[in-house]
Predict the structure.
Amino acid sequence: MSTTVQNDSQPKHFVGDLLALAAQKRVILSMGGKGGVGKTSVMSGLAEWFAANDIPVKLLDLDMENKARGSLTHFFGGSVPKVNIHTPAGLDSFVDQLADGPPVILADMGAGAGQITYDWFEAMYPDVSDAGIVFTAIGVVTSDPASVESVLAWASRLQNRVEYLIVENSTTEHADFTYWRQSDQALQFQKVFQPAVIHLDYRLPDLENAVRNHGVTLGDVAARTTNAPELQRASLVMRAQSYRRRMFAEFERVKELLLP
């Protein structure tokens, strides 16, 4: 049974005897599936964008298969808890974290998280939606058609319970997004769900590989706060500054999908 009361014109909901969440809070989750497309790079870049704009955000690392390098925990350390979603109530952490913490969650999903996520949305979405939680699902596509197929598979199950943000991630110097932009299935998805689309530039391997190996962000390199000698080269510092500036500009274009 739910009862609604008014407080400063903002609706709040009671579920039983517990004060639930005031609308509106947002969960931003990466759509797992195809590995190696740059999901964690996108999520770490988003975390930096939130920090640069002084917007409180909670990071969750739900990629239990990636325990070391390349995970959000690797980039941000102890401030990012690992959450085991392979339990009946694993994704309930969304609700718990939003109830007591910042109004935005960044959740980096791992490979193999699809069915668990679908089941959770089927069971919980009506109630969390009533509590004022909205969702943005980030799909990262590359020139590999499998990355597009993964996004379409997730969308076929999540349907319109989420808003979609597609990131065209240039993992090669001359990335070809023909399958995403022209295939019948992808065009149907775009017609039905009208996702926002942003583009991330190809990053020099010297920078990208070192950033991953040392677990530092573009901001660390740009600000010269990393002790890795190879990341102190003036050219790579300037590259990091450029990539970061252009990435932030892309996030700004779709900030309505990122803010509570």
About this structure: DSSP finds ten helices and nine strands in the chain. Residues 21-205 form a domain with the Rossmann fold fold (CATH 3.40.50.300). The chain has one domain: 21-205. The beta strands are 2-7, 10-15, 18-19, 25-30, 58-62, 104-109, 133-141, 163-169, 196-200.
